[in-house]
Amino acid sequence: MDTPRQLERATRALNEGKFAECAAICGAIVAQDTSNALATHLLGLAIKETGDLQQGEEWLRLSVRLDPARGEFHANLANLQRRRKKPRQAEQSYRRALELAPDHRPAKRSLALTLNDLRRAEEAEALCREMISADEADAEAWVLLGITLANLQRLADSEAAYRRAIALDPDNRVAHHNLGALLSQMQRPDAALAALENAGRLGRESYELAFNQARALLELNDLEGAEREFERAATLQPSNLEGQLQLARVRYMRGDPKFARSLARVADANPDNVNVRRLFAEVLWRAGNLSGAEAVLQDLVVRGLGSAQVRSTLAAVLQEAGQLKEAESFATEAARAQPADGVIVEILVSILLSRGHPEDAMPFISTRRALSPDSQAWLAYEATAARLLDPDRYRYLCDYERLVQVYEVQPAAGGWSSIGQLNAALREALAEQHKFRSRPLDQTLRNGTQTPRGLLSDPDPAVQAILAAFAEPIEQYRRSLDVDSQHPLFAVNRGLSRFTGAWSVRLHREGYHVNHFHPDGWLSSAYYVDTPPESDDPRTRQGWIKFGEPRYPVPGAPAEHFVQPKPGRLVLFPSYMWHGTTPIHGDVPRLTIAFDVKPD
Fold first, then answer.
1. Virtual CA dihedral for 518, 520, 523, 527, nearest 10 degrees?
2. Cα distances (Å, whole numbers) of residue 331 to 303, 309, 314, 600
3. Has residue 413 got a pLDDT over 80?
4. Mean per-residue pLDDT, 271-296
5. Buried b (16+ CB within 10 A) or exposed e, 410-440
6. Whole-number Å distance between alpha carbons of 204 and 464
7. Exposure of 260 in the CB half-sphere (CA atoms within 13 A)
8. Is residue 387's pLDDT more than 90?
9. Rounded to an integer, what distance in angstroms lies between the CA atom of residue 206 and that of residue 595?
């Protein structure tokens, strides 16, 4: 056998995509000479390309053992390890490759990605800047820096890095795509869509491109276009859970009675795919189809596929259906299997409180509070348990008379002569945003709609004017707080105020908010743009905001504080406080703006 010529043939076949031919040639060489490192390595690369990643990795590992001094062998092994979700092993292999070949830029670039995978973005940034220092025209290094800075939440710097990459390489599809995804995250959908369209012109369609285009179109209120692109994304990757979820969400909000049909097809075609079927059940649950959700989850349990997550989701469905004893049983099993999973433990705690067992819930709450002292969720559960076990602690956390404050807002900028004039402009501006027919699947409103785009970047002058008008009430609220390092609200009252989100909700006939807290806030709000006439009646309290009542009923914990809504009124309160609204029964909508604030 002319081994060098055969290796040339194998290399040519690999480069031409003839992976079976390459594997056959290299297999014959290795059968005669088990020490041939190059044939072993090419065999691993070819087998990997046929889809057998495990066998491919084993052959690549063997080639490294046969010839440990070849940096490209380590780099190729690292690439496969990263593809197989083994970032720590990949990091070791990339570093070994760079020890042997310090100028191997592909290995450096991939190492930067791996460090991002490992959530070590600061190290990744240093490596990116090292590459850029060596070659400022390296567009790929600028793209990697953009990825890294986005992971560090330095979004403006990330945008600048992507734009630098595009200036160096105008045809860099990844840079255009990543810039578009970033701009969508920054709530600049027009610019995002333009960047994504550039990416589409530069290469073939992909799930990521379709998904991000859908997000931008959704923020632009192009509901039909958003559904079309989410559907395209789901077609490209049918088993991608996020794509299927977003497609179902948009169809649900558009009033489609068969909103989950795409996800249902995938779930039916993959009866043993636990994650897909659990997502299908969760979507049914969120839409109010409790019996359908329970049937899907019970089927998984009966067939021996009842993971901790499946049992926990089933427990939540049973809790909503009022089957508390059965719910506690499944929730307890799930928490025993995954005691470190905060979502699973939260469902168990909620059920224990609903069953009137705060003393059983409190150890879980204390553990989670110690792990996450600033978690608004666990503060809410602590307050509920304390209400039943330690009234003094409850009043310390939930002094409604002091901590729920009401302000009559006045325009601060924009030339508005009165709050009535500003609210009239807001009604008109927000009408353009409320185009869905139904609520988001994962939000707390019922019989209403929510704006798909956050208001913080909304360019409408009325929206920006009302956000500016909130600044003074927020600061008044903050100045009213005591200095108390032990109180979860007071202790972090320092720095500048920073909006973390703002949105609008319009409730229709029989509309209301389910009791909830705001997990991503510190200070939360309700501002009333328009209220129905029945809200004026203090006896019926229709459309009033209420405080103190948990999401699911807890014995001895009804709502105990109410605030009347009025146009121009702003209510501020701690984000951990349970709050909801009483339903409205008339035909006039109730239009609000809500936001969350944190000290920066």
1. -60
2. 18, 9, 8, 37
3. no
4. 96
5. ebeeeebeebeebbbbbbebbeebbebebbb
6. 39
7. 21
8. yes
9. 35
Cα–Cα distance for residue pair 409/388, rounded to 1 Å: 36
What 8-state DSSP symbol labels residue 583? P
Q: Is 218 helix (H, G, I), strand (E, B) or coil?
A: helix
Token pair belonging to 583: 């339903």
C-alpha 452/C-alpha 450 separation (Å) is: 6
Mean pLDDT of 223-250: 95
Residue 494's Cβ-count burial label (10 Å; 0-12, 13-18, 19+) is exposed
Closest CA to 191 of 216, 166, 165: 216
| Euclidean distance between CA atoms 422 and 577, whole angstroms | 29
Sorted by sequence, the CB contacts under 8 Å of residue 540 that are 6+ apart come out as 534
Indicate the residue type of 522. W
What is the predicted pLDDT for the residue at 204? 80
Q: For every residue of 138-186, which 3-state class applies, written as one string?
A: CHHHHHHHHHHHHHCCCHHHHHHHHHHHHHHCCCCHHHHHHHHHHHHHC
What is the per-residue pLDDT for 531? 96
Q: What is the rounded distance in angstroms from the CA atom of residue 503 to the CA atom of residue 135?
A: 44
How buried is 154 (Cβ within 10 angstroms: 0-12 exposed, 13-18 middle, 19+ buried)? middle
Q: What is the pLDDT of residue 311?
A: 98
Q: Per-residue pLDDT for 1 more than 80?
A: no
Round to whole Å and give the CA distance between 407 and 573: 11
pTM: 0.85
Query: How many other CB atoms sit within 10 Å of the CB of residue 52?
Result: 14
Strands in 561-563's sheet, in edge-to-edge order, are 561-563, 545-547, 579-581
**Residue 364, CA atoms < 13 Å, CB-side half-sphere:** 29
For residue 446, the surrounding DSSP H or E stretch is strand 445-450
- Cα(354)–Cα(576) distance, integer angstroms: 18
Which amino acid type is present at position 175? A
Separation CA 127–CA 120 (nearest Å): 11
β-pairing verdict for 561-563 and 497-513 = unpaired
CA neighbours closer than 13 Å in the CB half-sphere of residue 281:
28
Domains recognised in the chain with CATH numbers: 402-599 (2.60.120.620)
Q: What is residue 312's predicted lDDT score, i.e. its pLDDT?
A: 98
Nearest to 407 by CA among 476, 339, 510, 463: 476
Span 410-414, mean pLDDT? 82
- The Cα–Cα gap between 162 and 141 comes to 10
pLDDT above 70 (res 193): yes
Whether pLDDT at 392 is above 80: yes
Cα 264 to the chain's mean position, in Å?
Answer: 22
Cα 145 from Cα 135, distance rounded (Å): 13
Looking at every residue in the chain, the average pLDDT score rounds to 95
Strand partners, 572: 405, 525
Structure tokens at 581: 């609204």
List pLDDT tens digits, range 104-134: 999 999 999 999 999 999 999 999 999 999 9
